[in-house]
Specification:
Helix content: 55-70%
Order of helices and strands: HHHHHHHHHH
Shape: globular
Strand content: under 5%
Distance between the termini: 29 Å
Number of strands: 0
Structural class: mainly alpha
Number of domains: 1
Largest sheet: none
Length: 180
Amino acid sequence: MNSKNNIFIPENPVSSFLFSNTRSAIIWLFIRVYVGYSWLTAGWGKVQSDAWTGDNAGAALEGFVKGALAKSQDTADVAGWYATFLENNVLPNAKLFSFVVAYGEILVGLGLIFGLLTGIAAFFGAFMNVSFLFAGTLSTNPILFILATWLVLAWKVAGWYGLDRWALPLLGTPWHRKKE
């Protein structure tokens, strides 16, 4: 495509500061650590629980899914398509999903706390928040989802005070790979 046909729309100063300027990294550090700590403590509690990852693994998740399925019939808190997914995919594999949830929460928490692959960790945290919201559970999920979404948008600077400061230049980005 000819560059004459490209239209450049400059970024507004607020989003430029928040999402592209390392001076905003201190803001993201506090948000990142708060969200990461929330995930880490939730995951750690599950890993320590017999009903999540112990001898009785899957029992807690099975109870959670059955509660969501009941909500789908009693109220409109759980959409029919999601109830079908839970009933046909998660419930028969509750033990596997139990481990995935517990250790996934720990990995998201550690990634955010240490600022390593911050955007990716925040994305998977937001994905879990949405999954819990679809299952009819509010709790802290709405605020964590919003903060995780902002962290995804701020991925370039959110890990500046963390391991991303060194990892991202080494890994490169899809549009700017490190030259060998």
